[in-house]
Queue: 3 jobs
Job 1
Amino acid sequence: GGTPDLGTAGAGRAALATDASTAGGNPAGMTRLDESQMTGGAQVLLPQIKFDVNEDSFGGGNGGNAGYLTPAATLYYVHNLSPDFKLGVAAGSYFGLGLEYDDDWAGRYYFQEGQFLTFGLNPVAAYRINKYLSVGGGVSVVVSNYEAKTAVRNLEPGSGDGRLEFDANDTGYGANLGLLIEPRVGTRFGITYRSKVDLEYEDKPDLKNIGPLLQTALDVTGLEGSKVKLDMEIPQAVLVSAYHEVADKLALMGNVGWQDWSGFGNID
């Protein structure tokens, strides 16, 4: 979030290469910058997330607004070593999500509150092979947090809900590559590939306000105090962008992309 290319809605992101944010969009584009440069951005998100519930079929309310105020920011820096060789770094959140329903939400026994946060640090380098072609790439270091809270139905009649809480962190690694092709002045094509990043969360869930019957069952089965391991995958992606100047103050930009979301969210 908070990238400078929000003004173009991300169109032509891998081919634009007009400021230091290209360290994140397409590292090969850093060769177009004549001097060292730093740029960044910030934004605030306030989502409205509501769940419609049939009161005749489910016990509990609609949970209210599950969204909450979330800040986001990015920072980019490109260092000019020579006209043809650049170093850079991109820092910011890959993506994140968070939900927080009211305590009486109808789906509280499946999910009640949680968040998935990521922060990426991406050092990159770029080299201009000739006036038509530049290449770039780097490594991705992703620090993440996964937190989930779920209500637990106690077995005693009239008793309140218990609660299960899971909270764990992990760091994953990946790579990204980029090409920038300039067949003529004012026309550019960018191609980027970002590898998948595997994350693994392991924690001993905390159980609170558990009734005596359920506590006895946990003790007998030996589940009390056991660890839970969850795997998460940030998907790989390919992006092809085009940029063409029609006139001094008019340019056309566009993207064609592919992202492999088939493995995301498949928690064992």
Note: The mean pLDDT is 90.
Job 2
Amino acid sequence: MSIKPEIAEFAQEFANIRRDIHAHPETAFEEFRTSDVVAERLSSYGIKVHRGLAKTGVVGTLSVGTSGRAIGLRADMDALDIQELNSFSHASKLPGKMHACGHDGHTTMLLCAARYLSETRNFDGTVHFIFQPAEENVAGGRVMVEDGLFDLFPVQAVYGMHNLPGMPVGHFGMHDGLAKASADMFEIEICGKGGHGAHPHKTIDPIVTGAEIVTAFQRIVARSIAPDDVGVVSVTQFHAGSAMNVIPETAVLKGTCRALSPQVQDRIEMRMQEIVSGICAAHGLTHTFAYERLYPVLINTALETEKATKAAVAVAGDENVQLHMPPSMGSEDFAWMLQDNPGCYIRIGNGEGSEGGCAVHNPNYDFNDEALPWGASYWATLAEQELSGA
């Protein structure tokens, strides 16, 4: 019930690796330097390396013994388009980009576990270390799957992990079944008739119509979704006009929808289309409606959640493992990997307050290096337990 001693011994080395990755953030499908670091490290540990899935993806394969059983351990590598406000020495060196979600830590924890497993080889089977690009917004996990990830590297189970600010370091959390929401994106263009702002009666105003649509969308969850179901409809962008005295021809609405079941997804999309069509028709406007389903609902399977729990308890103790963590309305493209395989996605504590408590996607965020040996020990323990040969 603790960090593995071997991992503790090289914890500082991996903290330095993490900080180097943090200082050189790369966004979706541009993780060239990061994937070079990953591939070079894996090769130095004697692990077979495959590159090129989803452009910058890396898969390391380590086989020990004679068992035909294989598991996948996945970490994401990409950063975000955010200007970092931190002033420490490992702050981003690239303006407008930063590791604001901890993927630098996720990558490093899996690298650390890979080194430990390659040196100790205390398992019987195959571990595929999956380093995935482009988790943020563009579903690099889906692209890896479509590029043949599990055809090339078949597994009996696949596992993922994400840091959680506000949870103490050395703590873990998971949830059997529905764990993360789907993420859909929409874009609506409303086309009316522009004109002078002093003569609105001679126009067909897309701004007023757009505002009516935004308000009507708020009724979808309140009145079209059952109270015991969960959904979110958020209009996050409203673009219209360029002059203060001109009513524009068009307005564009963009946003995201979340759900914890495909049925709620279907209901939300249908009601949005009905609302836009009806309101535009009532006021004499035309429209286009684009709706894209980017991330499916993430569903942890029962047996694999039980195995993930066992490994977390072995590392952190019963009292530091939170079972039945409430589902999050955030999304994760690891869900695409779980559509093809059983598996489990868990959370690891990043710390509280000034020691790791800053929320992700915040310009002041930083992954807490104190969590690195805990996450690496979890990965290593999970692999040893899953592939025990018993």
Note: The longest helix spans residues 262-283.
Job 3
Amino acid sequence: MLSAYLSLAKPRILALSVVVSLASAVIAGQGSLALGTGVLLVLSGGLASAGAAFINNYFDRDIDAVMERTRHRPLPTGKVSPLTVLIVGVALVAAAVPLALLLNYLVASFVLGGVLIYSVIYTLWLKRRTSLNIVIGGLSGSSAVLAGWFAITSHISPVPLLIALIVFFWTPSHFWSLGLACRASYRMAGVPILPVLAGTKKTAACILLSTSLVVAASLVTYFVGPFHQFYLVSAIVLGALFLTANVVLLQQPTRRLAWLNFKLSGAYLLGLFLTMALDIAAH
């Protein structure tokens, strides 16, 4: 039963969100991050991410029951009660907000905003209505960047906005790759994700465009931000690998290559943010 509830928290998304937030905080603090601040950021962001995932699972349980990739999740299989999942999700979010407020109201606003964008605006409103669902839903990940930044400073600069833009541009590339790999399931579930509406070739072209914007934003961030050569070289290498995989997908938009792009996109974002933080911390 415990493993079922842990899976409902979508631990991979949770971990990526926490890393993005912590990296942003390290950059804002010019390489330093107080232990107490880091702990509060991890707890508030982690609880909020888990809560949003629980709520998302609750509202998507009918879709998940149809799709091959998700039909073995705890809710479609009846391992857990839908009402319990909803209550736990709301409770996790309710616990996250006071912890974020211990940092400041801006952090709390972005933590709560990220939850509302993902579990309400994306899941309830956009996902079943428009092919732009995941584009706008990408603002949820950007909120984690801004929560990390404002946990350290109230100073507004182009740097956190550019870093948030990286996550925003990355989100469509990541989830369109997943949608391309699971296109038949999304069609069966009636979700108007881009691969269902536009087809494989056009979706692969849009993935390449989205990734190009991600890589461009990562390089602009170097010139605008406080970064050094370690980050620049890492951004170029990671970006080249990511773009190459996208080009191969465009040439051969198969399910296997789409799944590979999906996995690679997660590794790309994790690697990019880790190198950001290490670059600043080392100087």
Note: The CA atoms of residues 19 and 248 lie 29 Å apart.
